[in-house]
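Tokens as discussed.
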């Protein structure tokens, strides 16, 4: 862009108008800042010391132990916004959560729900933190509640990093701790580009990597559409399991043909321009898809051959969700160059993400600027929650329980599939599961993943809630991702609720 000083006065006014109109809807006036020295009209004004009675009244209004649900609803409606959707739309179907324990939560009327999706696929330990986690958080708050991550060494950061190095496969020995999974993926993007000097990042269409500008652009599904213009260098390649065609009849054939297509795309793009190949080791919200045999091994070989950084996004699959520590552990010989994680690392009791790197990546950044950071990176209290949660995770055999519960969940899903014609297919890896819904016996999905929920699915969702279950749905997918502490009896309870509710979708089939 030309410097604004080189523009005429009318040109500068036009540029300013274009800038404003790009941000604000027509008809919505910009709020003018008050002139310097103007008196604040807010009552009470907490910036001044001359209104103690007003401040006392304000604090008193927030000092009550609990609010009525009418008051909660009114404040929520006036002062908050939901994520990922229009607020009014989300409010109509929103559940009130009053308390939670184990694999259940209760609403304001005392009705109990089984959490069949671990909230956002993140409450791996269930809704009850072990006492050791609570104690660790309180202890950290009363010793070192915060440390500037780019300046200070803290014991808890060293301890958690050593524990993760002891747990992780291969030479994934060095860690950074941003606040979220999206921020972890941002960090990995930056690392790959800084280390290789290349710009392009390849990821798959059936993928989700976060809600920031860069991670949304790296995402393959429809959540990137509003923001991809703001980031460059992100390329997409096809998954082994596309919707409208097949790469082959066997897993081996699918892997061979898909990887050959990827190789050709890399050659057209120029291997010397590609910094990273980025993938969820097991696809998450785009269908819970375990890769075919040899696929991850083939990706690893391609990355090694062309000097491309292999990054596995384990934000959902990591820390036991699939019955292994990470999803990529289902391919035992594969170790990615970078692994990103969040959610399960501390049971999501506090916001925390992580980036693990192999020794050659760490060696580069011990001598070169990593060029990324944030205020809450390596927050000591969040790290304390993870350090305690991971030790509990090991002691309580949570990962082993997730692996063992695959059998009863698979049996339950198979029984539903045999009984309900609306189910096209169902699958799970550990406690990472999904049901695909069809609209007819020809096998046509009831909707695409990118579509809003069709009326029949919306009615099914209401029926599930009425019958005491919460889970997530997208397009034709009904997710089955309970907390990793779930028991066989609780799985049977969830399957029973699905059984009673699926009649709605059976009756809605177009060829009944």
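Sequence:
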């Amino acid at each position: 862009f030309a410097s604004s000083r080189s523009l005429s006065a009318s040109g500068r006014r036009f540029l300013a108008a274009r800038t404003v109109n790009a941000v604000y809807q027509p008809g919505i006036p910009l709020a003018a800042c008050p002139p310097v020295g103007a008196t604040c009209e807010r009552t009470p004004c907490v910036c001044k010391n001359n209104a103690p009675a007003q401040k006392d009244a304000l604090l008193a209004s927030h000092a009550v132990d609990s609010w009525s649900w009418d008051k909660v609803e009114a404040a929520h409606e006036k002062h908050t916004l939901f994520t990922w959707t229009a607020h009014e739309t989300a409010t109509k179907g929103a559940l009130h959560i009053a308390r939670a324990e184990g694999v259940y939560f209760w609403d304001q009327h005392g009705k109990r729900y089984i959490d069949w999706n671990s909230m956002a696929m993140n409450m791996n330990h269930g809704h009850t933190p072990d006492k050791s986690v609570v104690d660790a958080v309180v202890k950290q708050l009363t010793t070192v509640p915060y440390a500037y991550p780019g300046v200070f060494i803290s014991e808890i950061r060293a301890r958690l990093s050593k524990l993760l190095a002891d747990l992780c496969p291969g030479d994934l020995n060095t860690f950074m701790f941003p606040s979220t999974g999206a921020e972890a993926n941002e960090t990995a993007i930056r690392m790959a580009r800084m280390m290789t000097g290349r710009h392009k990042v390849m990821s798959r269409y059936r993928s989700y990597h976060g809600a920031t500008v860069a991670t949304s652009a790296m995402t393959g599904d429809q959540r990137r559409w509003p923001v991809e213009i703001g980031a460059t260098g992100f390329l997409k390649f096809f998954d082994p399991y596309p919707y409208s065609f097949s790469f082959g009849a066997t897993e081996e054939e699918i892997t061979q043909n898909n990887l050959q297509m990827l190789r050709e795309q890399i050659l057209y793009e120029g291997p010397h321009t590609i910094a990273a190949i980025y993938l969820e080791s097991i696809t998450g919200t785009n269908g819970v898809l375990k890769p075919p045999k040899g696929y991850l091994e083939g990706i690893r070989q391609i990355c090694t051959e062309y000097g491309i950084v292999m990054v596995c996004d384990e934000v959902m699959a990591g820390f036991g969700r699939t019955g292994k520590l990470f999803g990529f552990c289902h391919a035992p010989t594969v170790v990615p160059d970078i692994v990103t994680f969040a959610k399960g690392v501390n049971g999501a009791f506090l916001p925390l993400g992580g980036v693990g790197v192999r020794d050659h990546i760490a060696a580069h950044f011990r001598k070169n600027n990593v060029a990324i950071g944030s205020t809450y990176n390596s927050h000591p209290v969040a790290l304390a929650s993870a350090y305690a949660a991971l030790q509990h995770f090991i002691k309580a055999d949570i990962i082993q329980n997730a692996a063992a519960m695959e059998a009863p969940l698979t049996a339950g899903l198979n029984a539903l599939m045999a009984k309900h014609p609306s189910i096209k297919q169902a699958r799970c890896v550990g406690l990472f599961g999904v049901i695909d819904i069809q609209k007819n016996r020809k096998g046509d999905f009831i909707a695409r993943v990118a579509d809003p929920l069709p009326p029949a699915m919306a009615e099914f969702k209401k029926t599930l809630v009425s019958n005491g279950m919460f889970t997530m749905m997208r397009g034709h997918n009904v997710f089955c991702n309970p907390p990793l502490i779930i028991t066989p009896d609780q799985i049977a309870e969830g399957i029973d609720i699905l059984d009673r509710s699926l009649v709605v979708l059976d009756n809605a089939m177009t060829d009944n």
